[in-house]
Write a structure and sequence with these properties.
This protein has 316 residues and is α/β, with parallel strands linked by helices. The chain has twelve helices and 15 strands. The chain starts with 6 loop residues before the first strand and ends with a helix.
């Protein structure tokens, strides 16, 4: 279906980038071109060439490359995938897309108040398919449950860094637990208005809970989401009372592999940590929002500081 045909692969957000790269890698696709308007350190994990695409014209690229099909991720911070789907539809090119999560299904295909759907959409599981059907996406695209291509890639992962040398110039002792703090950048989408909390509230609750724990046999490693406003959030983190905090700027796979506990909200990194069978805490302060990962049963869920502290004690 794909291996012996010429494919153009397009992505932006990391949640779509990793599965798309895994798809090319896992299926030994040789005749392809991969483009993105973002650059990530995890490209090196796949040993695949990713071409930058910023100010070019998508119709011209399709004309020059002449692919047999288009395969895209789906993003909320970029419209590159939708621009290519729109251009591909004009010339009758078969389009495929992959949805990597359980949120904002209609918004993923909206460009300038117009909807652009591919011919087929691949989904992570049956729960995702139910969401797609409820959003009437099945009326526009064929739906196929494929699993997460990236998770298949992770199952064969061999870390490049030892646990002891995970952080440059710091030796992690045998008894120390590694807590990875990896929240979603909810402030990017007006989290305070939409959910009544954002990643700063989650961090403040985390610090408050950690301060109540009577042990220092752990260290906290901050892993920012690629879409995070790192500068402003770092200022808040650096003002905290915690002394054993480190920042991790490399690809997250080694970090997740060696972590003991991963704390976040509902981003894809928690699902990835679950593949490695890590202890997971998802902190969602009292909010009217619907928990998108609830049906997956991933991790312990806390809704206030007390519950967060109790879950940290249980996992430590």
């Amino acid at each position: 279906m794909f291996k012996n045909r010429k494919g153009l692969f397009v992505f932006s957000d990391p949640g779509g980038a990793k599965p798309i790269l895994s798809f090319v890698y896992n299926n030994n696709i040789n005749n392809y071109k991969i483009i993105s308007d973002r650059k990530y350190d995890f490209y090196s994990d796949f040993n695949l060439e990713v071409n930058s695409f910023f100010d070019q014209n998508e119709e011209e690229l399709l004309h020059e490359f002449k692919p047999d099909y288009l395969f895209t991720g789906t993003s909320y911070t970029s419209n590159i995938e939708l621009r290519f789907i729109r251009a591909a539809k004009k010339i009758g090119l078969t389009c495929y897309s992959y949805i990597d999560h359980y949120t904002n299904y209609i918004e993923r295909f909206s460009l300038n108040d117009e909807l652009y759907f591919p011919d087929k959409i691949f989904l992570v599981d049956n729960f995702a398919k139910e969401i797609a059907v409820k959003n009437n996406i099945s009326a526009h695209s064929k739906l196929e449950v494929s699993g997460n291509f990236y998770h298949k890639f992770l199952k064969d992962w061999i870390p490049k860094t030892s646990r002891e040398n995970l952080i440059n110039n710091y030796k992690i002792s045998f008894n120390e637990k590694i807590i990875v703090f990896a929240p979603d950048p909810l402030s990017n989408i007006n989290g305070k208005e939409k959910f009544l909390f954002d990643e700063v509230d989650v961090w403040n609750d985390f610090v408050s809970a950690i301060e109540k724990i009577k042990t220092n046999d752990f260290l906290v490693i901050i892993k920012f989401h690629p879409n995070q406003d790192i500068k402003s959030f770092s200022k808040i983190i650096n003002k905290s009372s915690l002394s054993n905090i480190f920042y991790y700027e490399n690809n997250s796979i080694d970090l997740l592999y060696h972590a003991d506990i991963v704390v976040g909200i509902f981003s894809s990194i928690l699902i990835e940590a679950n593949v490695f069978k890590k202890k997971i805490i998802r902190h969602i302060p009292a909010s009217p929002m619907k928990d998108p990962l609830l049906a997956l049963g991933i991790g312990l869920v806390s809704k206030n500081k007390r519950e967060l502290c109790e879950n940290l004690i249980l996992t430590l």
